[in-house]
Amino acid sequence: MNFLTSMPGIIESFDPVTQTASIQPTIKRVFITREGITETLTPSNLPLLINVPIKFPRGGRFSLTFPVTKGDECLIRFHSLSDATAIEAYV
């Protein structure tokens, strides 16, 4: 089964030449430790995502771009196929 998913993130760095960013997902993983009948929940950051391609709206020969800076919120999208494979599959 193929499916898409997404999560919010915060831009840690952005390279305007390569149009890639390092992004910290804002959703945390929770670890549960048990000692006897006591459970302790410990939130932990997910790993920093590096070299993430940044996509701006585009159509035809035009695209919209805007400044991207450290601390900006973003939406991280995960695909079951690469962009190139997806385009080939649906064309």
Provide key terms for this protein:
91 residues, mainly beta, 4-stranded antiparallel sheet, two-stranded antiparallel sheet, elongated
Written overview of the protein:
The chain has about 90 residues and is mainly β. The protein is about 10% helix and about 55% strand. It is built from 1 helix and 8 strands. Strand 6 (about 60) and strand 7 form a beta hairpin. The longest helix is centred in the C-terminal third of the chain and has 8 residues, at about 85-90.
Indicate the topology.
Blueprint: E1 5-15, E2 20-25, E3 28-35, E4 38-45, E5 49-53, E6 58-59, E7 62-63, E8 73-78, H1 83-90
Antiparallel strand pairs: 1-2, 1-8, 2-5, 3-4, 6-7
Summarize the structure.
This protein has one helix spanning 83-90, and strands at 5-15, 20-25, 28-35, 38-45, 49-53, 58-59, 62-63, 73-78. With 91 residues, it is mostly beta strands.
**What is the average of the pLDDT values?**
87
Largest sheet: 4 strands, antiparallel
- Listing every helix as H and every strand as E from the N terminus to the C terminus, the arrangement reads EEEEEEEEH
Shape field: elongated
Radius of gyration: 18 Å
Would you tell me the structural class of the helices and strands?
mainly beta
The total beta strand count reads 8
**Parts with pLDDT < 50 across at least 5 consecutive residues:** none
- Percent of residues in beta strands? over 45%
Please work out how many helical segments DSSP would assign: 1
Question: Separation of termini?
Answer: 20 Å
User: Could you give the order of strands across the largest sheet?
Assistant: 5-2-1-8
